[in-house]
Amino acid sequence: MTTNKKAGGLAGVSAGETALCTVGKEGAGLTYRGYDIYDLADNASFEEVAFLLLHGHLPNRAELKAYISKIISLRGLPDALSKVLEMIPAHAHPMDVLRTGVSLLGNIEPEGDFDNQHDVADRLLACLPSMLLYWHRFHTDGTRIDVETDDDSVAGHFLHVLHDKPPSELHRQSLNTTLILYAEHEFNASTFAARVITGTLSDMHSAVSGAIGALRGPLHGGANEAAMELIQKFSTAGEATAGVQQMLVDKEKIMGFGHRVYTTSDPRNSVNKKMSKILSDEVGDTRLYAISEAIEKVMWDEKKLFANADFFAASVYHFMGIPTYLFTPIFVCSRITGWAAHVIEQRANNKLIRPAADYVGPDLQKYVALDDR
Ligand code: COA
Q1: For residue 170, is it left (φ>0), alpha (ψ between -120 and 50) or beta?
Q2: Whole-angstrom distance between the N-terminal and C-terminal Cα of the chain?
Q3: Which amino acids bring their CB within 6 angstroms of ligand 1?
Q4: Tens of pLDDT along 115-133?
Q5: Mind telling me the catalytic residues?
Q6: Global pTM value
Q7: Are 216 and 328 in contact (CB under 8 A)?
Q8: Which of 22, 102, 127, 279 has a beta carbon 3.0–4.6 Å from 319's, enabling a disulfide?
Q9: If you measure from the C-alpha of residue 21 to the centroid of ligand 1, how many angstroms do you get, rounded to a whole number?
């Protein structure tokens, strides 16, 4: 019996339908509900994109105002959750903190029937940054921060609570744009995990906890942290060129490069790269951006591999003073919109997701008594 090599990792296999997103589709590229990602990145707020994904249309002025007010009102953390966040060790990875936080919230505020699924999605969108940064600030400065600010954007709230002061417009806008770019990406690993969990008619907190676990790995969302660690290993662009060439000789994977679906470029990269340059100039960086460009050039010259969304997102966050271990959690604070929209879409036309496997184990054999082995 042989395995179906073509479907290794389900590459190229369609596993269902979605009206949420196209990834690398001929003539469309990356779109959310039919809107081009560049159009959204240039013109929309993350809140408009969240509404678009979750409700199916761009909000009008009144809908957006109501939506933002709702998000602001849902930022608070239940006492029991704050207490648990304080008990999670300072050396934990914040992705584990978020996984536990979402799971605990599912106990404190269980979803129940699915009538209020949009409220659960909005609650998670509003309070993921709160739980992340409450834990972070408690363990880094011993402060029990007030997460209930009146910032009118997720990006503004995140940076305000992280740095204890409202961000500059450039920083708020840059984070807003990366949140838009990270919001949705069809049947990627974490979203597919969420859909598999949803397919059993489980609750949204379980689907999102599972998705966080899938996103955590360096082959998926964890790549932005791994990319930053790589960039910081080098002191000059020349050193980076030689270092990455050697890594390729050693058959190492270079994080932040390559993609399962895209073959020649990731459309999100040009936007992140442009922001990285602007922010590098703002902070007077003379090293990290040049190193990043050098790595990008080697990867293309040597392997025809291109930077994906995670590579320049890493330096964008770094230049805004965000610690590296919060990079993948920021991805969560954005992708919660895509995950929740997929949960809702899956439920609307549910079918248990249970594929088959090609058996490659031993032939039928008889049980052998313990003493005879
Ligand atoms: N660095 C070095 N080589 C890479 C590479 C990378 N980042 N990405 C792919 N390759 C090479 C593989 O070694 C393999 O070469 P081979 O055929 O000689 O063995 C070939 O390209 C195909 O890669 P593979 O890992 O089988 O493709 P995939 O579709 O299963 O994986 C990723 C896609 C994204 C998991 C893969 O490109 C990767 O690991 N990238 C780094 C992690 C990352 O940035 N993830 C975020 C994705 S948005």
Answers
A1: alpha
A2: 28
A3: 9, 11, 219-220, 223, 253-260, 303, 305, 308-310
A4: 999 999 999 999 999 999 9
A5: 220, 259, 310
A6: 0.96
A7: yes
A8: 279
A9: 23
